[in-house]
Design a protein that fits this description.
Blueprint (H helix, E strand, L loop, with lengths): L1 H22 L3 H20 L4 H22 L6 H22 L7
Helix pairs in contact: 2-3, 2-4, 3-4
Length: 107
């Protein structure tokens, strides 16, 4: 009975460790997401982004976060999933730049 308890404890510890690893296995995507979020916030503060544009860009970021969470859900982020996340982030980056530099009037 004692051995059985130890085995269960070890299994639980390993699963917990793997789950923690899976949550942190996209450091580049996480760093890039923070940078993009900062760019959006700066654009909203400076008036380069309207409320509507900011909301649209925020929704795009939320979808990327959702897709990243989904990719991490099984504990492994595959090359295909990483490529998809990178493609989404590339598009989001271009969208942020485009919206920040469109010729709208600042308030």
């Amino acid at each position: 009975m004692r051995l059985r308890t130890v085995v269960w404890f070890v299994c639980f510890a390993l699963l917990t460790a793997l789950a923690g690893f899976a949550q942190d296995n996209t450091p580049k995507a996480d760093k890039r997401e923070k940078k993009q979020q900062k760019r959006i916030e700066e654009g909203k503060k400076s008036g380069e982004l309207t409320k509507k544009e900011g909301a649209k860009l925020e929704a795009e970021q939320a979808k990327i976060r959702h897709d990243e969470k989904k990719a991490k859900s099984d504990g492994v982020v595959t090359k295909k999933e990483r490529a998809k996340l990178q493609k989404e982030q590339n598009k989001a980056s271009k969208d942020i730049a485009k919206q920040k530099h469109d010729e709208q009037k600042k308030p």
